[in-house]
Amino acid sequence: MSAKSKRALRLQQVAVGPLDNVDLEVAPGEIVCLSGPSGSGKSRLLRAVADLEPHGGTVQLGDREQDSVAGHHWRQSVMMVPAETAWWFDSFGEHLSKPMPDALGALGFPEDTGNWAVSRLSSGEKQRLALIRALSREPQALLLDEPTANLDDDTSLKVERWLQAYIRQHQCPVLWVAHREDQIRRVASRHFRIDGAGLREQELRQ
Ligand SMILES: Nc1ncnc2c1ncn2[C@@H]1O[C@H](COP(=O)(O)OP(=O)(O)OP(=O)(O)O)[C@@H](O)[C@H]1O
């Protein structure tokens, strides 16, 4: 494991949309789940951490400040996978930074998936392939916005296990927006619910 991957993600006094003064430190390898009602600001918080939305306060990855890096460079390290993904080439394979045969196999795709036309992908396929695309760029921190929202239970479990293995191996700090209590119980190191303008830590029930 490279030293550069072992970096904490730190939010200090972050203010965006309905949220104010969010302080949060996510350790390397830690998965912090965020939940809250629709419209409470979960996606906007992830977008702020990804430098996709103006915000107050500071965000750091290790000793590197978001403000000191161009947005597109920051997002190569602090990678957001939105609930709905955009695609810009015709075939899936053109979106990868490196071949990902093990990931394709783990998530149930055949070897020739790289040749698949993006226009033919189902929403569940797009969601899984967007995760593979993101990890092909070897991010140092991950921001996952409901990464299994379009998937059936068995496929969700497969994706969870695969993500957990990656996060453990690469020691990425992770913010993971999730709604389902059972998923939060399985994956979260800590769980915060958005409560008005702030985050309230929840007990993790076994
Ligand atoms: N650029 C923007 N400017 C102003 N308001 C916005 C902007 N983007 C989103 N909003 C509003 O901010 C609020 C929070 O949006 P956000 O997408 O973060 O919600 P969410 O908690 O992720 O909801 P959901 O669970 O439905 O995805 C919503 O009321 C939304 O309409």
UniProtKB/TrEMBL annotation:
Alphabetical keyword list: ATP-binding, Nucleotide-binding
Gene Ontology MF terms in the entry: ATP binding; ATP hydrolysis activity
Domain named ABC transporter: residues: 3-204
Keyword presence, ATP-binding: yes
Protein name: ABC transporter
Organism: Microbulbifer donghaiensis
Lineage of the species this protein comes from: Bacteria, Pseudomonadati, Pseudomonadota, Gammaproteobacteria, Cellvibrionales
